[in-house]
Design a protein that fits this description.
It is a single chain. With 342 residues, this protein is α+β, with helices and mostly antiparallel strands. It has eight helices and 15 strands. The strands form four sheets. The protein has a five-stranded mixed beta sheet. Strands 2-5-10-11 form a four-stranded antiparallel beta sheet. Strands 13-14-12-15 form a four-stranded antiparallel beta sheet. A hairpin with a 2-residue loop joins strand 7 and strand 8. Helix 1 packs antiparallel against helix 3. Bound molecules: ligand DP6. Ligand DP6 binds next to helix 2 and helix 4.
């Protein structure tokens, strides 16, 4: 028997992926850019065992056995086996037993599928003797698009690619975390309930019905992506922050432009947006940026010297009655201070 345990980090997109040109192969309409968080607070953990005596593939998620017929999961296994066949044919028939867990809310718009599939594929690759990160990114993409970015630390770009077979649609590291050490992320958990409309079906509805999405992809993103890469390169926080907030806002505008509309942010999310703009206005400088994925939870980007002051203001605005996860039930975000993953 061979057995291995891996952990994989969450990534937060600063330029969002929203919309596929190929739903089967999970090929996106646009490039996206993300920041990978340290695994200290939020991560997925997966243990994979392979053994010639295992009769079938089996999988447990957060302690509950799951069907292995899930098409995306099955696709990841198939893609790994295809690569194993090419390299180490002898173990290609062995079955996998897989145990995965997230230490943060699953499906609440906190990139759980990204960390989960990155971890699954990385562990499958490791136990099967596949070492190229390129392969891990390509296969993780088949589990969940955003997962292809979680295989790198620091600042990451997922190249949409142009090939119909998707062989050039994978993530690359733009810069490691050490490039810009003071960047911090505050994760504000507003709710841990499962989102009403998952990203996969939400983005499909947007592709079908939103004219704003087409405009975004064709007219807005090419320059925005180039500007974002430049801003990260020269460590220009104000530009990085403005682009991040504008892109989050446009993504949620696309969701509202989808018909019927998709609403991910709630009242607390909007109160956080107002706070960030007021804070920056009073500082006469852009010191904080927000971004929201397919859920109400916020991620704030802040430079390390400003973290304490921002947290103090958040505590004042949303006074916690006790430091427990139950706070967000009362509309008070729970703040986690996270560094970037290398
Ligand atoms: C809003 O990667 O979850 O978080 O590829 O269908 O699994 P699928 O979608 P998924 O979408 C993530 C959307 C997002 C933006 C982002 O992470 O870029």
């Amino acid at each position: 028997m061979k057995i291995i345990t891996c952990i994989a980090p969450v990534n937060i997109a600063t330029i969002k992926y929203w919309g596929k040109r190929d739903t089967e192969l999970i090929l996106p309409l646009n490039d996206s850019i993300s920041v990978t968080l340290s695994t200290d607070q939020m991560h997925s953990k997966t243990t994979v065992a392979i053994d010639p005596d295992f009769k079938s593939d089996r999988m447990w998620l957060n302690g509950k056995e799951q069907s292995v017929d899930n098409p995306r999961f099955a696709q990841c296994l198939k893609e790994i086996r295809r690569r194993v066949q090419d390299k180490h044919g002898d173990i290609a028939d062995w079955k996998f037993h897989i145990c995965s867990e997230n230490n943060f809310p699953t499906a609440a718009g906190l990139a759980s599928s990204a960390a989960g599939y990155a971890c699954l594929v990385y562990a499958l690759a490791k136990v099967s003797g596949i070492s190229e990160v390129r392969d891990v990114s390509l296969v993780a993409r088949r589990g969940s698009g955003s997962a292809c970015r979680s295989v790198w630390g620091g600042f990451v770009r997922w190249q949409a690619g142009v090939r119909p077979d998707g062989a050039d649609s994978l993530a690359e590291q733009l810069y490691p975390a050490e490039h810009w050490p003071p960047v911090r992320v505050l994760v504000l958990v507003v709710s841990d309930s499962k989102k009403k409309i998952g990203s996969t079906s939400g983005m499909q509805e947007s592709v079908k019905t939103s004219k704003l999405l087409a405009h975004r992809v064709e007219r807005v993103l090419p320059d925005r992506i180039a500007n974002m890469i430049e801003a990260i390169g020269r460590k220009d926080f104000a530009t990085f922050a403005d682009l991040t907030m504008q892109d989050s806002n446009q993504f949620h505008a696309v969701c509202l432009d989808t018909y019927p509309p998709i609403v991910y942010m709630n009242e607390v999310s909007h109160a956080i947006v107002d706070f960030v703009h007021k804070y920056n206005q009073l500082a006469n400088q852009v010191k904080v940026a927000y971004t929201f994925d397919a859920g109400p939870n916020a991620c704030l980007f802040v430079l390390e010297p400003d973290v304490a002051d921002v947290i103090a203001h958040l505590r004042h605005l949303f006074p916690p009655t006790e430091h427990s996860a139950a706070n967000y039930v009362r509309g008070i975000p729970v703040v986690q201070h996270v560094q970037l993953h290398k």
